[in-house]
Specification:
mainly beta; 151 residues; 10 strands; globular; ten-stranded mixed sheet
C-alpha cells in the first residue's frame, strides 16, 4: 500500500477534527527539529484521543508539553497521546502543548502547506494542514496573499 492507500473510508474522520491556524515554524536551516502550533478543533460529539502523528516531510512527529516545577524550571515532556474534548478546542502554543517535527526530509518552503496525518485511538485518521511560517518575520498572517487553494 502507498502512504495514503488502503485506508477504509469509514476510518477517514473528515471534518470531525480540524486544525485552525496550524503553523510550522521554519527554523534555522541546520536545525533537525521544527515546532508546530495551532488549535485542534473537535467538531464531534465525543472526545477524540490522538495517538499517532505522521507527515511525509518528517521522520517523526511527537506531541510535547511543558511542565513547570515550583522553583520555576520547565521541562519538556513527550506525551503518548493527546485528547481533544468533544465540541471543543485544544490549543498548541509556546509554553504549552506543541508539535515537535523531527528530522525534516527536505527543506521547508515558506508559505507551503505541510500535511500532517493524525490517527485517533480508534484508528480513525484525520488529514490536517499546517502552513510553514518564519517566526522571525513580524505579522506573518498579513503576508499570506489570499491565494486560497482548495485541495
Amino acid at each position: 500500500f502507498s502512504f495514503m492507500g488502503g485506508v477504509k473510508t469509514e476510518l477517514d474522520g473528515g471534518q470531525e477534527l480540524e486544525i485552525i491556524n496550524g503553523v510550522i515554524h521554519q527554523g534555522p536551516p541546520n536545525s533537525s527539529v521544527n515546532v508546530g502550533y495551532g488549535t485542534f478543533r473537535n467538531n464531534a460529539s465525543e472526545d477524540i484521543t490522538l495517538t499517532v502523528f505522521r507527515s511525509p516531510v518528517f521522520d517523526d512527529l511527537q506531541i510535547h508539553t511543558m511542565e513547570y516545577s515550583d522553583n520555576g524550571t520547565a521541562k519538556m515532556i513527550h506525551l503518548k497521546n493527546i485528547s481533544v474534548p468533544a465540541k471543543s478546542d485544544l490549543t498548541l502554543k509556546p509554553g504549552g502543548h506543541h508539535l515537535m517535527l523531527i528530522n525534516k526530509r527536505r527543506d521547508l518552503i515558506l508559505d507551503e502547506d505541510i500535511m500532517v496525518v493524525v490517527f485517533a485511538e480508534d484508528s480513525v485518521r484525520y488529514m490536517l494542514h499546517f502552513k510553514v511560517i518564519d517566526p522571525r518575520l513580524e505579522n506573518n498572517s498579513n503576508h499570506n496573499h489570499h491565494n486560497h487553494m482548495n485541495h
